[in-house]
Amino acid sequence: MTLTTRAAALLLLGVVPVVLRPAGSTLWAWLLLWVLAVGADLLLAAAPGGLRLTREGADQVRLGERASTSLVVENTGRRRARGLLRDGWPPSAGATPARHPLDVPPGERRRVTTALVPTRRGDRAADRVTVRLLGPLRLAARQRSVEVPGRLRVLHPFPSRRHLPSRLAVLRQLDGRAAVRVRGQGTEFDSLRDYVDGDDVRSIDWRATARRRDLVVRTWQPEQHRRIVVVVDTGRTSAGRVDDAPRLDAAMDAALLLTALAGHARDRVQVLAGDRAVRARITGSDRATLLHDVISTLAPVDPQVVETDWSVLAAEVARSSHRSLVVLLTPLEPAAVEEGLLPVLPALVAHHRVVVASVSDPALARMRTARDGSEQVWAAAAAERTTALREAAAGALGRLGVDVLDAPPDELPVRLADHYLALKRQGLL
Amino acid sequence: MTAPAPTAAPEATRSPASGASPSAVRRVRGVALWVVAVVLGGVLIALAAGSSPPDDYLHPDGTGQGGTRALVEVLRDQGIDVEVAGTAQEAIDAAGDGSGTTVVVGNSSLLGSTAARRLLASTRGADRVVFLDGAPDVLPELDLGVTATRSGDEVSAADCRVPWVQDGDTVARWSWVFGPSGDRLPAGSVGCYPAAPDGPGSPRLWAAVDLPASPAHAPVTLVGFPDAATNRFVTEADHAGLVVRLLGASPRLVWYHPTADDLTENPTPADEGAVWPSWLGLVVWLGALAFLAFAVARGRRLGRLVPEPLPVVVRATETTESRAELYRAARADARAAAVLRHATRTRLAARLGLPPGGGLPELVAAVSDATGVPATELDALLRDAPPQDEAALVRTAQQLAHLEEKVRTP
Do residues A251 and A396 share a domain? Predict the structure, then answer.
């Protein structure tokens, strides 16, 4: 139960009789009257247990967009249910309004809709729904909280998807479907067709032409069904914030763009995320739902404050003996790279083509170039040192035969996609 | 984050094993000094406050215009033992059984009726009780049969026979005149310095009244001209003779000067009902209960708080910033300059197409060709040499940035 401010005001109204008849008995009589009124109101209020609550609405939303969740309130009691309802969500779910007015006549049902504008990626579980039902005098209310399960999965916003159309155009050029055809390494024989003006005369298949009376050309298509493994590092180094978002989010952005592109190129994509253990694993068996599966599975993955165990992740990659393109999305932190990644790389490089893609920090470049006053010069020296160490780590990786990409968050997805296309064009997959 | 002062550093590192570190000793010493300062200051303030003479009206130690120090000194010169009391209890204790003692009530502004009644009842054995300023506020409650009114009229000559008034004694200033509360003064009373009655048929008024002893009190004298005892006016007219004869009649004089403490020690029961309305207490109770109900109403949450698992927040540049802080704290000028030079050399070499591990002379020559800057100047800038101080480091850093800019945009 709970009181309302109206009950307090009613109690204060007792000043009038007390002033008119200043005696202790007046006070006691007023208090008795008040208690009776509040008690009667409480008895006449509808029972919260008589409300049946069911949840409807979206179960996933892309970060930055708006979703809504509804509660259908059915009054199975005999009294009119009037009062307040609160649908409890964690603060980062961005639920508005915080409380809803409620008025459900007996036997009827009403829908209460809460808008959700989440501020962070991940899963948000609904907390309890609290109902406060007022009595007819609105002096007192009965209150109860019940669990109405609900979950909203906030997906990665995937901002780099705007680069997808241009990269798909490049992919179509590689593919035989576009006007320009490329023959050479990395392509495989596709089919024979009639010569049309503009075709490269070098692609005429003379043997087939001899069999028929028209000119016949061979068409080529890029290699397909290559295996691509994207490993997203969720260890401590991925927790660092670059421009107000953790490095992990930028790494996921790059992983998603590569997944989308490689899916269109009919390559088999596998995405892994993990640190000391594998946190997420998506095997692209179904090309149609691949991208959605990856976005959805990566959504609840958060950075962990542990050192990444690369031997676990490398063992996961090495499960298949097929030659693959292995993309490691991990920051180029010199200490972490030297102690964790370098030891496992030789075995990987021996069997696969390995690319390390790292999210660099634009703030580091700003620190490096700002040199007004001693404070900034100390910072510049430290930034130069950090840059030199990163370059040394990148050099060490390069000597092992690993391709290293180091780019700011908004550039990394494009750089990685372009690198993939370049590899595909050269048939290095 | 502040770097420890260079002088403190060796001291702190010398005795890490001993229990009390120097900083703790210094802190304790500081606290002790503060305590001593506060105590000394308090004592000084107390002394200063206690040493100033009171400037209350009719205070026996008052040396101002309204004080009566002059009169008290004269009485002491006459061999009279003057004692000062601040509360009724002190006055009663000082008066003892009362024989050979005159009790005088000076300033009555802080005299409560309870205190006045206690004084009268406890000093029945005294030679005389004098109300030097007439005590007009409490007079109606003492049942002496006398009331006081403020007077601006003339009073005539003494016209009475009491021991302390001599024929022809005149009074220059008066504040109050006394009249009977009934038709006439109590039997045996003597009025001096008559004033004009308020109207025809009204009882007579006097500026001083002597009341005889009764079972309830010792002989009482009400004086309506308190100014006569003050330092300023005691020398006017016949004031001095009058008050000295009045107060010097007994070998002991207890001067009762009521204080605020006296008022709280002797509360007047009738006061309370008069100030607060009778319903106030009940309304306060009701208000408190209503406030409680309001607090309950507002304090009840609509459902529990929902916990939020918060993500790790680490800025990616944090290690770099800490490295800068370390450089600064250690004053690693040489190291910072070497790092900056190395970075610039690496970038310049890459820019000008030189092999990464090339020597300095080749680089200097290439840069000189590209920018036209003399080779000696470039050599001094790019060759590793520790800067003299922080300012030199800043200068070097800016020159390096400038050089890179020049190579980038020739």
Answer: yes
pLDDT digits (tens, 9 = 90+) for B249-272: 888 888 888 887 777 777 766 554
**Which range is most confident: A172-176, B170-174, B260-264, B287-291?**
B287-291
Residue ranges covered by each domain of chain B: 69-266, 319-408
Decide if A89 contacts A130 (C-beta within 8 A).
Answer: no
- The residues pairing with A122 across neighbouring beta strands, listed in sequence order, are A154
Chain A: residue whose CA lies nearest to B340: A381
C-alpha torsion angle, residues B43, B44, B46, B52 (rounded to 10) = 160
Instruction: List, in order, residues 6 or more apart from A130 with CB less than 8 Å away.
Output: A85, A86, A88, A143, A144, A145, B302, B303, B304
Count how many Cα atoms sit within 13 Å of the Cα of residue A358 in the half-sphere of its side chain. Answer: 24
Interface contact flag, B293 A3, Cβ < 8 Å: yes
Residue A38 in tokens:
């509040």
B196 contacts: CB under 8 Å, gap ≥ 6: B153, B154, B205
Q: Is the same domain home to A265 and A252?
A: yes
CA distance B289 to chain A (A): 8
CA distance B285 to chain A (A): 9
Predicted pLDDT of residue B13: 39
**What CATH number corresponds to the domain at position A34?**
2.60.40.10
- The strand pairing partners of A328, in sequence order, are A231, A356
Tokens 């290690």 belong to B319
Q: Which residues of chain A have pLDDT under 70?
A: 175-190, 220-223
ipTM of model over 0.85: no
Residue A164 in domain? no
Distance CA A383, CA A387 (A): 6
Where does the pLDDT of residue B6 fall: very low under 50, low under 70, confident under 90, or very high at 90 and above? very low
Question: Which pLDDT tens digit goes with each residue over A4-50?
Answer: 999 999 999 999 999 998 888 999 999 999 999 999 999 999 999 99
For residues A411 and A266, membership in a common domain is answered with yes
What sign does the dihedral A190-A193-A197-A202 (CA atoms) show? positive
Mean pLDDT, residues B327-347 taken together: 92
Q: Which domain holds residue A316?
A: 224-425
- The alpha carbon of residue A122 is apart from the nearest alpha carbon of chain B, in Å, by 10
- Position A357 in a domain: yes
Q: What φ, ψ does residue A220 adopt, rounded to 5°?
A: -125, 150
**Among chain B residues, CA nearest to A84:** B302
What per-residue confidence (pLDDT) applies to B219?
86
- Looking up residue A341, the CATH number of its domain turns out to be 3.40.50.410
How many folded domains does chain A comprise? Answer: 3
pLDDT in tens, B141-155: 778 788 887 776 676
Q: Which of A109, A138, A155 is the last residue of a domain?
A: A155
Size of interface A-B (CB pairs under 8 A): 167
Nearest to B113 by CA among B89, B134, B142, B149: B142
Tell me phi and psi for residue A212, to 5 degrees.
Answer: -105, 175
A214/A131 same-domain check: no
- Same domain? For A34 and A134 the reply is yes
What region does A147 belong to: left with phi over 0, alpha with psi -120 to 50, or beta? beta
Binary contact (B308, A91; C-beta < 8 A): yes
| A140 and A95 both lie in a single domain | yes
Q: In the prediction, which pLDDT does B11 show?
A: 40
Residue A270: closest CA among A282, A258, A260: A282
Above 50 in pLDDT, residue B316?
yes
Chain segment B119-141, per-residue pLDDT in tens = 888 888 888 888 888 778 888 77
A177 part of a folded domain: no
Output phi, psi for A68, to 5 deg: -140, 150
The answer to which of A18-22, A257-261, B18-22, B332-336 has the lowest mean pLDDT is: B18-22
In a domain, A180, yes or no: no
- In terms of domains, do A55 and A1 share one? yes
